[in-house]
């Protein structure tokens, strides 16, 4: 069941660390092993272990054949899972242990310091383990993104004047689950009219009107991989002030896409899109980065595309490209694609049109 053990072991050899302890759902998902909070993964240079308590043992025996299953009983030992970790580290003569920095509580860290090994707190290094996708991951993400396009198309068929943002959000959720999604990638953004000036505006009871923007930003999780797409539609012909912003954001998005390529610095991609918006006099209204990595999570995945990022892009990296302009009191536009670098070039995988989406007034 578990995957990418060899990739983790390559990482250990490169960093000269003897073992790596993984607790996060994100990393367990990436390794395709059990996700329960009582399940911990320990990878050494020689072997992989799944440390768990009795709640998970039956499922583990039925599904996990690539990691050695270690049953830990805190009621017997009087200690938490670190008792099992300590034994494995001693048996394999490990001198160093890497851990996910953002997964370790202070009290837990103190206990780790008593294991008799040097502890390395890792953050970006762990994220970078996932930053280049393999062929299996890319195929899973292509499926996820194709489903996302289909869900959006189904939702569009129901949007009409007088419908609340809550109702539209419910439709997104319904069609996502009906299509086979495991869950949503994040809380769906649905906003309309002047509320589209809120980049992450959660749905409200506001009812949509004709000729104004309706922004939907959502993603799904399918086969453990996530998507993230934003499109803006209109009921009836959009007002001229919205057209002006839409055209500008689309121009910026296309500039950002053109800049995404192997060998490019992530900050330069951000700059390519930002320069377009600033040249038009709207720079102050684009107040977030151009994009972020996408994979088993939509939060904390590399590469990050913003003005400070020094990451150099490579083939196999997957990221969003999502410039936006948000004007308080008027509204905003954001256009977002999921982009994969293939043969040196950034390729948007979403098929949903970026031309004006104008729905019939009903």
Describe the structure.
This protein is α+β, with helices and mostly antiparallel strands and 362 residues long. The chain contains eleven helices and 18 strands. The strands form five sheets. The protein has a six-stranded mixed sheet, with helices on both faces. Strands 8-9-12-18 form a four-stranded mixed sheet, with helices on one face. Strands 7-10-11 form a three-stranded antiparallel sheet.
In short, what is this structure?
With 362 residues, this protein is α+β, with helices and mostly antiparallel strands. The chain contains eleven helices and 18 strands.
Which features does this protein show?
six-stranded mixed β-sheet; elongated; 362 residues; alpha+beta; 34% helix; four-stranded mixed β-sheet
Order of helices and strands: HEHEEHEHHEHEHHHEEEEEEHHEEEEEE
- State the secondary-structure class: alpha+beta
Q: Which stretches of 5+ consecutive residues score pLDDT under 50?
A: none
Q: Taking all residues together, what is the mean pLDDT? A: 96
> Which strand order does the major sheet show?
4-3-2-1-5-6
Report the strand count: 18
* Total of helices: 11
Strand-residue proportion: 15-25%
Radius of gyration, in Å, reads 23 Å
Largest sheet: 6 strands, mixed
Distance between termini? Answer: 51 Å
Looking at the structure, what is the overall shape? elongated
Give helix % range: 25-40%
């Amino acid at each position: 069941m578990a995957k990418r053990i060899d990739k983790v072991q390559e990482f250990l050899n490169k960093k000269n660390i003897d073992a790596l302890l993984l607790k996060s759902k994100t990393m367990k998902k990436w390794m395709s092993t059990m996700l329960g909070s009582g399940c911990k993964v320990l990878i050494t240079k020689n072997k992989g272990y799944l440390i768990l308590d009795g709640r998970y043992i039956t499922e583990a025996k039925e599904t996990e054949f690539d990691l050695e299953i270690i049953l830990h009983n805190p009621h017997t030992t009087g200690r938490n899972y670190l008792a099992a970790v300590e034994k494995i580290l001693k048996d394999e003569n490990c001198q160093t242990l890497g851990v996910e920095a953002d997964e370790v509580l202070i009290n837990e860290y103190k206990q780790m310091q008593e294991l008799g090994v040097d502890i390395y707190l890792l953050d970006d290094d762990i994220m970078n383990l996932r930053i280049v996708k393999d062929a299996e991951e890319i195929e899973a993400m292509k499926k996820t993104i194709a489903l996302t396009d289909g869900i959006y198309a189904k939702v569009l068929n129901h949007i009409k004047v007088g419908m609340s943002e809550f109702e539209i959000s419910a439709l997104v959720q319904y069609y996502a689950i009906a299509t086979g999604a495991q869950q949503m990638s994040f809380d769906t953004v649905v906003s309309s009219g002047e509320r589209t000036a809120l980049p992450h505006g959660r749905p409200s009871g506001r009812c949509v009107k004709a000729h104004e923007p309706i922004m939907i930003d959502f993603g799904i999780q399918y086969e453990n991989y996530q998507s993230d797409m934003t499109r803006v539609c209109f009921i009836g012909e959009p007002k001229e002030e919205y057209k002006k912003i839409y055209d500008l954001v689309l121009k910026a998005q296309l500039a950002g896409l053109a800049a995404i390529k192997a060998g490019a610095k992530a900050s330069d991609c951000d700059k390519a899109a930002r320069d377009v918006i600033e040249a038009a006099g709207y720079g102050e209204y684009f107040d977030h980065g151009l994009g972020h990595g996408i994979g088993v999570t939509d939060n904390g995945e590399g590469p990050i595309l913003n003005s400070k990022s020094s990451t150099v892009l490579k083939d196999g990296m997957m990221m969003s490209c999502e410039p936006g302009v948000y004007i308080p009191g008027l509204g905003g536009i954001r256009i977002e694609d999921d982009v994969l670098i293939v043969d040196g070039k950034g390729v948007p995988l979403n098929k949903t049109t970026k031309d004006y989406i104008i729905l019939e007034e009903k």
